[in-house]
Here is the input.
Amino acid sequence: MSIRLGGIIFGLAIAGILVLWSLVPGVKNYAFGPPAEVQPATVFYEHGEGPEGGYAFDGPLGRWDYAQLQRGYQVYKEVCSACHSLKFVSFRNLAQLGYTEAEVDAEAASWTVPGIDPQTGETTTRPGEPTDHFPSPYPNAIAAAAANNNAIPPDLSLITKARHGGARYVYSILTGYGEPDPALAKKVGFETPTGLYFNKHFPNVNIAMPPPLVLDGQVSYADGTKATIPQMATDVSAFLTWTAEPSLVARRQTGWFVIGFLLFATALAFLSYKQIWAGMKPKKK
Here is the structure.
């Protein structure tokens, strides 16, 4: 009995030591504050909430705003495509945004894509065709890094799936550029290194990407919409949501049909059960 009791006490002691040891880092951080290297992110970072009013595709009854998607494509083409690729999207996919066949052909032809000279076999360029994918602005990753201070711009095809927050993350990054509060920066010893840019919505607050949207009217929308920075950020983040999941709205609509069918099938099964077993009485024990 004494051996068993001693074992229990010894086990409890070991467990207590492990619990206390796991609490030491938390108590230390609470008492002395976070390390200096993480203070800037803690002090300056602000969680982005996305555009005021949200997106048309939000919620189970959301729909694509095709005018917004076309504006977002225009922002990508005129601004974002200078650094970022869209390699998983074909020009012919633009027909899903409401473009006619002739407009898709014209859009494809307005891009220059890699090609092969049929006479010599050498690498060349040619106007795009509807079956082509959006081209990369750089021939390879080394060239991309060399042109962007060793930071390779990510492909944007699936960016809203690859980042927590999706479209709202993209919107927040595009609208989060600025300058930190000078007094607070001096107090915590923070500065933005050369080649980086302060962005309050980026988790590390210093980002390698220069501000892509720098002034209102940077893009002249074909439909006459006023191109403010928040408007352009909203439109292009909506467009990138579509590139990441073109079937988003259709999938939700299918879900409603599935739920309706399951409810109908459940009601039918219950009524069948009542009909089959209506005349049966339980046996008495």
Summary: Strands lie at 112-116, 123-127, 197-198, 206-207. The first strand starts at residue 112 and ends at 116.
